[in-house]
Structure to design on (423 residues):
């Protein structure tokens, strides 16, 4: 069986958590392949809301195996809190949550390094979630990291000490004011490692190969979005992992020719949290309305998300890079009540109209060129069938399909599992 992918096509927070949860009933295994607790994936069902950071979004389904793949970076402290939340809801995670031995660990000093690095940048800061993501991936590619499998070795604490001592020197090098009590942080870390060790550590690439051979269905769950990809995103205002399709290959050990469907998920408009360019960003009442109606606050940091119109230039780019085969459009309900909707179809760039993402998309270089479409007034949140949806909504979806040349198979009209319409 091929491995399917679910990928965010914008700057994250497209609604991946909700859709993975919806799709999970069709899969035996849900596998996260990159990122770490910088992610915040929200699921809503039975009147309850859950936010997951590292744990895959299939965890609430009884029989599905959830795998944290080798490409993920794990903070045991945050992981422990996530487990405690699952326990509160009587989720028997021990039998169905597996962790790759090759996943890297976020140490307390990685978080401190993140804070020091951001503080040293002043106004040029990335707007990181400060979860230690950048420093941990730096240690991974620098070949200094500590992996989950190391926790099974007797000397893991020696390795830890050597790395943490080096980090302390690096923090001093930044020469910024970062307050911390390392002894306390380390105690918390060691306690959380003990909890993590109660879970099943596995050689996940072998596990997945076997599962494939047995005909099991596998969905790879992405975190962040294509425009935050370390190579193809709006560098340096990106995260430190490969958020695009190729990341699923390296982050799980799945060969490229084993990829099946690539589901691409996007909001009917655009949001971004943190710093960096955002050509269609709105600073007016329309942007304020999207933020308010869409409840656009970061699921990990609570920061307000910046809002703007849909950017088709950026979306086409993401569809291409990922080889998207089916699209899923989220939060259409948030656009109800706008008389006119704008979609960016090109950029004015250095006196020229262009239809691709240029190297530098800073606001001073790029002005969006918009096409206007008719809005709709009806509240979509109670609708369950395409036939109920307003004509203008269907026109909006069909217009996007034509532009993107990929079918939009699902539209989401509210945060709940049930507010999902198949087309
Ligand atoms: P993720 O990081 O991609 O999983 O997305 P987040 O959970 O960070 O952000 C998506 C937010 O939108 C969450 O608060 C969801 O509950 C909410 N949401 C998801 N789909 C819809 C939708 O169709 N309509 C509305 N109004 N909210 C949605
Ligand atoms: P999900 O999976 C939205 C953003 C941060 C910052 C930049 C770098 O919920 O879609 P990092 O913590 O990685 O050093 O931050 O990336 N960012 C996200 N924005 N959703 C996310 O994840 C994000 N994860 C990181 O705001 O701009
Ligand atoms: Mg999120």
């Amino acid at each position: 069986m091929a491995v399917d992918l679910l990928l965010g096509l914008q700057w994250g927070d497209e609604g991946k958590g909700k859709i993975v949860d919806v799709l999970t009933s069709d899969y035996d295994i849900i596998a996260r392949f990159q990122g770490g607790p910088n992610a915040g994936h929200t699921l809503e069902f039975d009147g309850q809301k859950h936010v997951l950071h590292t744990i895959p979004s299939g965890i609430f389904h009884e029989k599905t195996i959830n795998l944290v793949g080798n490409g993920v970076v794990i903070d045991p402290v945050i992981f422990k809190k996530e487990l405690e939340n699952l326990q509160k809801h009587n989720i028997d995670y021990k039998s169905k949550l597996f962790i790759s031995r090759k996943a890297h660990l976020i140490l307390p000093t990685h978080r401190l390094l993140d804070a020091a690095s951001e503080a040293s940048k002043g106004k040029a800061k990335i707007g990181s979630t400060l979860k230690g993501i950048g420093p941990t991936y730096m240690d991974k590619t620098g070949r200094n990291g500590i992996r989950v499998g190391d926790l099974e070795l007797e000397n893991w604490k020696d390795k830890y000490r050597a790395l943490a001592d080096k980090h302390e020197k690096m923090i001093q090098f930044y020469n910024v004011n970062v307050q911390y009590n390392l002894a306390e942080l380390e105690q918390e870390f060691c306690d959380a490692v003990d909890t993590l060790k109660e879970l099943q550590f596995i050689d996940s690439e072998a596990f997945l190969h076997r599962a494939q051979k047995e005909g099991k269905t596998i969905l790879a769950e992405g975190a962040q979005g294509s425009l935050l990809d370390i190579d193809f995103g709006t560098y340096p205002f990106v995260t430190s992992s490969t958020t695009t399709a190729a990341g699923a290959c390296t982050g799980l050990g799945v060969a490229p020719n084993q990829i099946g469907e690539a589901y691409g998920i996007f909001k009917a408009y655009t949001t971004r949290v943190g710093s960096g360019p955002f050509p269609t960003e709105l600073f007016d009442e329309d942007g304020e309305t999207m933020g308010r109606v869409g409840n656009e606050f970061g699921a990990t940091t609570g920061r307000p998300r910046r809002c703007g119109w849909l950017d088709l230039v950026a979306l086409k780019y993401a569809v291409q890079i990922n080889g998207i085969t089916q699209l899923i459009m989220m939060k259409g309900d948030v656009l109800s009540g706008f008389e006119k909707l704008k979609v960016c179809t090109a950029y004015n760039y250095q006196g020229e109209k262009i239809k691709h993402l240029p190297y530098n998309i800073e606001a001073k270089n790029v002005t969006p060129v918009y096409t206007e479409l008719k809005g709709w007034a009806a509240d979509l949140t109670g609708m369950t069938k395409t036939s109920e949806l307003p004509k203008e909504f269907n026109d909006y979806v069909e217009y996007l399909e034509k532009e993107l040349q990929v079918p939009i198979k699902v539209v989401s009209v509210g945060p709940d599992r049930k507010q999902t319409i198949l087309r």
